[in-house]
Structure formats: structure tokens, C-alpha cells
Design goal:
Elements: H1 2-8, H2 12-24, H3 30-39, H4 53-64, H5 69-78, H6 85-92, H7 107-127
Helix pairs in contact: 4-5
Length: 131
């Protein structure tokens, strides 16, 4: 079973279906398997990450520190939250959070950018680096 999972990337559900069909020698339809799994209350869905308040607070804190996604994942793994990059992206983009990566577009951000640009141009003009 471990070989099938590691070498071929089979999910436990697919392995279970293969074992059933080999041992019983009857191939059931996929719909029959789905109905049976629903009857047994198996779910393929994962726990919603946006409902974990501690995780959400930690991601907001790290995002507020302007960390990259890779650094956020590294910090979360230290605190025993093992997320994939896709899970972190989905958590950040969830409608309840909307933590978007990118530049700020407010009037205050534009003013600060203009002041920084003016200072940079002035220093280059004084040093003789500008034409």
C-alpha cells in the first residue's frame, strides 16, 4: 500500500477501491463507491483553514510584517502548522480575510512614493550621477 502511494501517487481512497475490486473480482461503478462512502460518512474535504482563529491571527500578523509567502510558510511550520503554498494562498484570498500581496494604492502610499522618488533624484543630481 505504501509503495502504491509513494511510487504512483495513489490516494488512500483509490488504493481501497483497487483492493476491493481485486479481492472481490467485481468492478462496481464509481457512483456506487461514492454513495457507499457518503453512507459511511467519509469525506474528501479538508478542514477549513479560515475557521482556525489562531492560524488566521498568525497569518495576519506575518502578512502585516510584509513577509513573503515562503517566509510565512517557514514561520508557520515552526509553530506546527504544515501548510502548502496553495493552502496559504487560498487562506489569504478567502473572502473573510482578503490579505492581498502587492503594493498599496492609497493616497498616503502614493505621497510617500513621490517623496522617496524626489529624494532619490535629488541625491543623484547632487552626486553628479544624473544626466
Amino acid at each position: 500500500m505504501e509503495v502504491m502511494r509513494e511510487q504512483y501517487g495513489f490516494t488512500p481512497r483509490l488504493i481501497f477501491l483497487l483492493i476491493l475490486s481485486e479481492n472481490i473480482l467485481i468492478v462496481y461503478s464509481l457512483r456506487a463507491y461514492r454513495d457507499r462512502f457518503a453512507q459511511w460518512e467519509f469525506t474528501k474535504r479538508q478542514v477549513s483553514l479560515h475557521k482556525d482563529n489562531q492560524l488566521v491571527a498568525r497569518v495576519k500578523e506575518l502578512w502585516g510584517q510584509n513577509m513573503t509567502s515562503a517566509n510565512i510558510l517557514r514561520c508557520l511550520s515552526v509553530h506546527r502548522w504544515n501548510l502548502s503554498a496553495i493552502q496559504l494562498r487560498n487562506l489569504r484570498l478567502h473572502p473573510s480575510l482578503r490579505l492581498l500581496m502587492g503594493t498599496a494604492n492609497g493616497a498616503e502610499a502614493n505621497f510617500e512614493a513621490a517623496v522617496r522618488a524626489e529624494d532619490l533624484v535629488r541625491t543623484h543630481m547632487i552626486s553628479g550621477q544624473a544626466i
